[in-house]
Amino acid sequence: MEVKVLDINGKETGRSVQLADSVFAIEPNKHAIYLDVKQYLANQRQGTHKAKERAEVAGSTRKIKKQKGTGTARAGSAKSPVFKGGGTIFGPRPRSYSFKLNKALKRLARKSAFTIKAQESNLFVIEDITFDTPNTKNFINVLKALGLESKKSLFVLGESNKNVYLSSRNLKRASVVTSSELNTYGILNANSLVLTEGSVEGIVENLSK
């Protein structure tokens, strides 16, 4: 799969890159995508929720009324879940929502996500970006040149670049990651995926292990 390389002004450079069909042109596996996205979202949950059960609620354990003769149901402690202020029945407890997925399945999910972006023509390859200093205005100019200023976009760098990252940090619709930080959710959550020339080799290498 051959894709033309654009410069940061959105113009063609006259160069092109060959994207491996084994990564960018496979048969998408939607179930693998579902599992990988599900795991990513599960890992974002803190799992610190907690409700007090009857043994943990503060209050007296004295029997609140006699057992018989009241005409109502028998009742013991005021901490019983049937009373206001009592404990919670089967309330949430702190837990981890994470679960394990095989590496091969996660690689398949990312390949499927790349393929979907390529099929939708929402994948671009641009020359490597370098800024001398962090400058949000410069990054906005890049977005405008590519026609992405009003779209959610994900930029993938070959290696970490602090100035480029800081230039994009204040923008709600733009994110910058390295090829090693990519995940299926991030790829699919972006309207447009922008790869730098230097990131292509790293992506293929990471997904070919």
From TrEMBL:
One GO cellular component, as annotated: ribosome
Annotated Pfam families: Ribosomal_L4
Region Disordered: start-end pairs: 46-77
GO biological process: translation
Keyword Thylakoid recorded: no
Keywords: Ribonucleoprotein, Ribosomal protein, RNA-binding, rRNA-binding
GO molecular function: rRNA binding; structural constituent of ribosome
Described purpose of this protein according to its UniProt entry: One of the primary rRNA binding proteins, this protein initially binds near the 5'-end of the 23S rRNA. It is important during the early stages of 50S assembly. It makes multiple contacts with different domains of the 23S rRNA in the assembled 50S subunit and ribosome. Forms part of the polypeptide exit tunnel.
Similarity section: Belongs to the universal ribosomal protein uL4 family.
Subunit annotation: Part of the 50S ribosomal subunit.
Protein name: Large ribosomal subunit protein uL4
